[in-house]
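Key result, reporting period 2: structure in, sequence out.
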């Protein structure tokens, strides 16, 4: 092999042992499309900037990537699955999504999707519980499960945090959630927060007869500390651990998933920082890739967005595609979004979580787009209710129940003062 262009074979037909990646390439003016495309395949597999005799070794060529399709700005690259260490997401992404984003050989580069082979898929455990397992935990087979993040997201004392939990559980929600940046701060230490919150949860669960739970953030300085926190949750009778999957990293997600397997804890995946990679459509690592990697690694629940109804970016088409990616047994190719086909070979579906800038008068719009087999998270749209968190939770519960019963929100508001107040206060417009 001489230069980058030797990593192109537009006549190649990939087989079931090829991992496929779909890239969008911005070719520099001083270069040529073929040189840019070849650079992506070379640098994401075996090559570098200089030709080398050793690139002609049979064993090296056997694990080299090749561009096999190019349409406009989009290319598809085939990677022999032998190139990868099965079960090692960090190594897989260090190849496909590693140096290539910083190469001068491209002006911009977007990895839109990855199609994993059966051997690679089967090398990951996938979710322990998955959507069906979580549904079994709650006596709510059909409606969306409802959760609320305690807000202000950081700063509350433990007593104030526990009081927020009391109010949202009393108000009818299923789950309290720590926010992405709440961990073990001095004013709300982890163990005290867990112990006190779960005590209140037990009381309310016993009184209401409804299952209540708590997504507890174990994101910590290292895996040893995260394991200690997960064990503490188990010892206190909790059912969930939550981690920030991007800021902790892929190997941490994999380790925490194993810890959760041993402890029988469900794993909630918060994706804070994903926007740094996923937001710009011409450059970076797509949320579609984040979602498929998270499903393989085995999170039970994953934030996917509000389908453009709430405060965070994410078009309806993209979020609907994400929901399909993490719940279907088989994903068809989505030519419009440049998303690839994916067979999941029995990897369990993940529970989609819709969150970000929602309030009770927007949940029907989200369910119209994403259906009801989802989780709905509302933070500011509950704790910002004029009559406080309990009222906000009541309003959310009533809004979801109304939707499930086919009752218009305005009609439901006539029978629920908290929903009426929310309607008067927020109206029906989306948030930014
Ligand atoms: C939502 C949230 C979540 C976002 C994360 C926040 O609060 O707690 O972290 O939903 O984004 O801090 O913004 P609000 P995504 O309900 O008050 O907006 O779900 O898209 O990953
Ligand atoms: Mg948050």
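The corresponding designed sequence is given below.
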């Amino acid at each position: 092999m001489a230069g980058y262009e030797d990593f192109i074979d537009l006549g190649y037909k990939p087989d079931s042992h090829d991992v496929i990646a779909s890239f969008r390439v911005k070719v520099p003016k001083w270069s040529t499309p073929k040189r840019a495309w070849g650079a992506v395949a070379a640098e994401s597999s075996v090559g570098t900037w200089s030709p080398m005799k050793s690139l002609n070794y049979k064993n090296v060529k056997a694990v080299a990537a090749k561009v096999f399709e190019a349409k406009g700005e989009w290319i598809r690259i085939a990677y022999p699955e032998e190139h990868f260490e099965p079960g090692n997401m960090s190594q897989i992404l260090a190849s496909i999504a590693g140096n290539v984003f910083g190469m001068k050989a491209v002006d911009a580069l977007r990895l839109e999707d990855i199609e994993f082979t059966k051997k690679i898929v089967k090398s990951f455990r996938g979710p322990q519980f998955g959507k069906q397992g979580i549904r079994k935990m709650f006596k709510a087979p059909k409606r969306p499960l409802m959760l609320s993040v305690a807000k202000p997201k950081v700063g509350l004392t433990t007593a104030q945090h526990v009081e927020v939990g009391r109010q949202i559980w009393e108000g009818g929600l299923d789950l309290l959630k720590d926010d992405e940046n709440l961990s073990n701060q001095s004013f709300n230490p982890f163990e005290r927060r867990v112990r006190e919150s779960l005590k209140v949860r037990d009381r309310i669960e016993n009184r209401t007869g409804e299952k209540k739970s708590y997504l507890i953030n174990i994101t910590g300085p290292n895996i040893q500390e995260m394991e200690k926190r997960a064990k503490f949750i188990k010892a206190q009778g909790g059912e969930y651990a939550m981690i920030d999957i991007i800021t902790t990293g892929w190997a941490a997600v994999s380790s925490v998933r194993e810890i959760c397997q041993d402890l029988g804890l469900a794993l909630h995946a918060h994706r804070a920082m994903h926007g740094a990679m996923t937001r710009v459509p011409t450059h970076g690592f797509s949320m579609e890739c984040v979602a498929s990697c998270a499903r393989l690694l085995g999170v039970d629940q994953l934030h996917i967005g509000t389908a453009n109804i709430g405060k965070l970016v994410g078009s309806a088409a993209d979020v609907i595609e994400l929901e399909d990616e993490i719940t279907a047994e088989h994903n068809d190719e989505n030519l419009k979004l440049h998303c690839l086909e994916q067979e999941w070979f029995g990897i369990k579906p993940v529970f989609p979580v819709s969150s970000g800038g929602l309030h009770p008068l927007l949940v029907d719009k989200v369910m119209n787009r994403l259906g009801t087999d989802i989780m709905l998270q509302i933070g500011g749209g509950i704790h910002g209710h004029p009559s406080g968190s309990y009222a906000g939770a009541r309003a959310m519960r009533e809004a979801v129940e109304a939707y499930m019963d086919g009752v218009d929100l305005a009609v439901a508001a006539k029978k629920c003062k908290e929903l009426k107040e929310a309607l008067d206060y927020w109206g029906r417009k989306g948030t930014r």
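Residues 149, 153, 179-180 surround magnesium ion (ligand 2) (CB under 6 Å). The chain has a mean pLDDT of 97. This case is discussed further under Risks and Mitigation.
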